[in-house]
């Protein structure tokens, strides 16, 4: 087990190196630079322009800049944002919990609803239920998040007034940032149920918007996986033993059918992150998706290269964790490592 | 059917959570808080370091003051931290009498022991101009605004005559200097606080945990989310009407509008022009408007043939039906521009005769210029929505259709904003859409920045038009302190501009703000900046 983790970590080094290379050069290959953006419509003399470039270290050769960037990372320094002039790592850590919290809630609702709906569609195969659930999933899978988020806001927030339009917490609640996870911080700050509920209410719509695509994917995956398993010999055996239908489905079919579903959930890590970019923009959610998009628009090179590297690291870690869960779910694989 | 039961349980559970949370929202206790839905996160809380609207709005007029200020909703200069001032005859010395009894904020472990005085003025400017100043390189500051306005070379010396008197000594007479001091980058910070931080080896906090003299005291900032302020009880103009101010950072304009409708904010930044029609009929929204201090234009790069030919530039003017753009692009909320400065700015020359819409004349001019069959050209369309041009792409299509009538075949091109600026600076374009919102209410701020010869290298003169006669006039006007004299020169300069036609002046737009009907006392600034202390609830 340990050797597996070690091997995986080792093999992630070339990946991270590749990511750093791509992130570094791609953004510099795009025309326009942060100095230009700061000067805006006003412009600035060539001397001023050069002076500002030098101040940001952008006057050095690309190779030199890249090596410097790598060197600093080895010392745990991910650079300093050109826009906010704060360390990239600090900026990342300030926003990362918000994205994780939202993603977890989105994933939670996607799993809690997606798995049962998938099972339902499978056992009611070719029925009205199956067709309506699967066409619903297709719609959910192909719905543009931006549009869907706006519809949710118009219906639930503006129309019915049930949930807030956007943000993380109502402005009249002051919650001290301790962990960065609002649901935890509201408890720690001693605001009680009311503040906690307020934070939760702010999370409902973005979590639904972000979770819709994974929900649809999980429901479809569960359905096809359960259907496959139901055709297996051991299911027939179980039925022949006279087990109740419920037991057959829950204990024999579902447990085996879940293995590919776990894979899909694991792969959702990247999907959630891309979805988070849009969701965070619509719902004014202070997470890393929005942070990165803003940084690209501002040509904030250190944030883009440092941020992408940090995110890649997170995704690699998550994939490793998923593989470990996989081993836990599927004992057969344990012997193969 | 276990799985159905399972799904049912889950749904019930979700419903329970929903009911719980909904019931919680009815027992809310709301203190009167003014909520401003801003469009982006500030990059600093020190306007000396900022170049972007969100940073200025979150700091300049909330936390700080300047020596002089713009009148509320206007461009006139009024006393602020300086009570009065004198300008020496030759126009090189500006002496300011400072207002007594002005208190800085108390915040965290800092409590000011003295009132605002000359030392604070010196600190605020010397940090920006003196490379040896102990705070000059704190937070890797670049002072882009200060430098791009060449303030460093202009200010020769700043002298504290006594505690309440400061004299600025300039290297040359510069008429717009006073107006420059009302701009955001000229905000006054506390020298005592700087010292306090230096002793604690926490200099970098000066730009992030700000102390000023302004109407609101900074309380906290949660990145990308909220900024909180509390009214400054000792504010020298009297405390702000609403004691709590919150910026709720909401990047998407349509979401800001929905938040306003849902009562989650009282005032929104930069409403989208496409929402204007529905805003006006919405009882949950009040819309205010005022002519903006701006101009939208199409610059013709005079270094690129055939636009080096005056007749071609004039022909393009005659070919465009600009009046039709006002309705299509600005929803009628603008007027056709004929001068490079808006009519609300002093020295506007209404006598200037504009080119009329006359495709026949345009074709004639093109024939005379040697293009009987027209020609092919490229126009860059503005990639961002700005008050002076809310929809560059659509504007491009209208211009394209008009020019096609006279035989000019236009190709529309665009890039993302930083690229657009970078390439425009290099002069790679033929026709280019751009515009400007004035930032100090002085004609020099338009005519010199956008059309002066220095602007060609600086990248702000995108027509790359350097005309000696025009340049002489505006250079002379800079050095005169008599406004009547200056006005004459600027009026003359506008005539030359129109004759030489380096830009097609498109429009001066109306700027508008959407706010909650509960709000009163809000005034739109012609500069597009926000201030909050005069706002109250009805």
List keywords for this structure.
heterodimer, A: 337 residues, mainly alpha, MetI-like fold, B: 538 residues, alpha+beta, D-Maltodextrin-Binding Protein, domain 2, Dipeptide-binding Protein, domain 1, Dipeptide-binding Protein, domain 3, 3 domains, seven-stranded mixed sheet, five-stranded mixed sheet, 18 helices, globular, disordered N terminus
Characterize the structure shown:
- The complex is a heterodimer of chains A (337) and B (538).
- Chain A has a domain at 91-300: MetI-like (MetI-like fold, Orthogonal Bundle).
- Chain A is 77% helix and 0% strand.
- Chain A is built from 14 helices and no strands.
- Chain A has helices spanning 2-29, 34-39, 46-55, 62-74, 88-123, 128-142, 145-159, 182-188, 192-230, 233-240, 245-282, 288-297, 301-329, 331-334.
- In chain A, α7 (145-159) crosses α9, α9 (192-230) packs across α11 and α11 packs parallel to α12.
- By secondary structure, chain B is α+β, with helices and mostly antiparallel strands.
- Chain B has 3 domains: 30-62 and 214-285 and 516-538, Periplasmic binding protein-like II (D-Maltodextrin-Binding Protein, domain 2, 3-Layer(aba) Sandwich), CATH 3.40.190.10; 64-194, Dipeptide-binding Protein, domain 1; 294-510, Roll (Dipeptide-binding Protein, domain 3).
- In chain B, the strands form 5 sheets. In chain B, strands 12, 13, 14, 15, 16, 17 and 18 form a 7-stranded mixed beta sheet that branches. A 5-stranded mixed beta sheet of chain B has the order 8-9-10-1-11, with helices on both faces. A 4-stranded antiparallel beta sheet of chain B has the order 4-5-7-6.
- In chain B, α13 links the parallel β15 (376-380) and β16 (409-413).
- At the A-B interface, α2, α3, α5, α7 and α9 of A face α1, α4, β10, α8 and α14 of B.
